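Standup, Tuesday
Yesterday: got the pipeline producing structure tokens again.
Today: sanity-check two examples.
Blockers: none.

Example 1:
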Amino acid sequence: MKTGFHDPRTDPVPVGWPEFFRAARLHPVWDYDLMGLDAWTARNPPVLATVSDGAKILAAFSVLVCRPRLRYRFAPTPGHRLLRPFWAEVCQPWLSGYPGLAFAPEVAAADRRPLIRDFERSLRRRFGPGLLGVLYRALGQDFAQDLQGRGRLVKAVDSVAVLENRFASEDEWIASLPKSRRGGLRRQRRRIADDPGVVVVGGAGREDLDSAEVATLIQGHRDRHGKLPLDTRTPPSAAFLHRFLRRPDVHTLTYTGADGRLLAVNTLLDHPDSPAKQHWGTLPVDEGGRQGLLFDSYIHAMRYATRRGVKELTAGRGLPELKATLGFRARPVYAAAVPRPVLGW
């Protein structure tokens, strides 16, 4: 086995990565070029680690190299060795509720733990004595069990909203909801359809969008709702979104006012089994926004899911009570902290 570390800002695509990407059924945010665009503007840039057997990749880890908040907004240049203590996080920063590690389909459950330990030993050697440890975020129950061991802390931290798709149409989904929510969604759907002051457009590979305007709307929405605890992500850049929104596997739903101003935006990541309702941003009502657009976005997402016949739709970790009224259940999410002395053991 060989573990390789690949800086997507400067290193070529790892051998075997396109094949692994398809076989492991990864979401679009695992695209190597996209990771590179994100890394150039990130304070804690992602590095892709791969564990390979010859030319075949068996496991992959999205690793954020995290530094204490001192002065700098952006990361040091590629190849710069960190002198102050730091830690690493295994996570996918733009995929809420999903882990930053993946395995080839032929890797048996019993073989995952040894591959993870190989990665940890290589990580310790790669980054040297300044590495304090590793934090694994957004683990499912199966991966959380793989991370257990002496000196390791594994605990449930929150949940991701998951809606099992057993419906033939959006109307069948709406009919399954509580009466009050049913009526509200139907009224909202009619209200948007009859409002000449709101233009609704959805589709994949959107080339008509101003990525800077989208970035501003998404970040403004996040700023109003407060930063998540221990959030090491950097705001999405216009350069990243310019490439991201044009991908054929990224669907973007927009609500635009009659004056052309963007009122709300929602991205949905395509996937053969589990599409993910991802970025959401909206203008406040007192700044010209409209009420109820979030609920309307769920109607569009379920329209897509039922037409595709996918297994499930995921919708991130926020607003669990609201999402429960839309038929979503809470899937537990775990975190695992592994301090340096027990890395690889």
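Example 2:
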Amino acid sequence: MSFVTVLKHPLASHHIRILRDRDTDIEMFRRSLKGLGLFLAVEATRQLQAVSSPVITPLDVEAPGEAVESGRVLLVPVLRAGLGFLDSFLELLPAARVAHVGVSRDHETLQACTYLSVIPQNPELFDTVFVLDPMLATGNSSVKTLEILQDAGYSQEKIIFACGFAVEEGINQIKSKFPAIGIIAGTIDWKLNEVGYIVPGLGDAGDRLYLI
């Protein structure tokens, strides 16, 4: 799976362990999801283009510098759970614009249904799009979100999918339909169970983030 970048950092692994633990309370779960999101954001933003931006130092000397135009970045958290990564990315990209896509899963068929789509209809204003979701399981919700972006005119080459926990099934579904999209994951887990949950996984990230 060379098309997937997996985080390699001891503190990212530390956050993943906390997120997996069934005894982690809601406060610590939120903190660790945000912490993992920061590592994903650092890795995901490696490919951003910086522009030359010299500065004058307090010694009245001009020094070379580089700046990133974060206003040309679009963040797309997949509701609900994707909101858990939003603040992490905004910490590094404070001028980024934020779109919202709400996708629910039918627990009988595992198919994804869209209930909210607020996407800017001017894709030319954005150089990079980060889709945020803690879980890449069956890939149905992820593909639905990517289809919405594609229908709005966003090219695959602009999009990076950032997730915390992924499995091969979801990765393969994205790559079969959107081969130019990059994926960054905190970890790649073993498999899906019979009801479409990641194993060993972290349970339902949305529930643990907001309801428990």
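Quick observation on example 2: The chain has a mean pLDDT of 94. The chain has one domain: 4-47+73-210.
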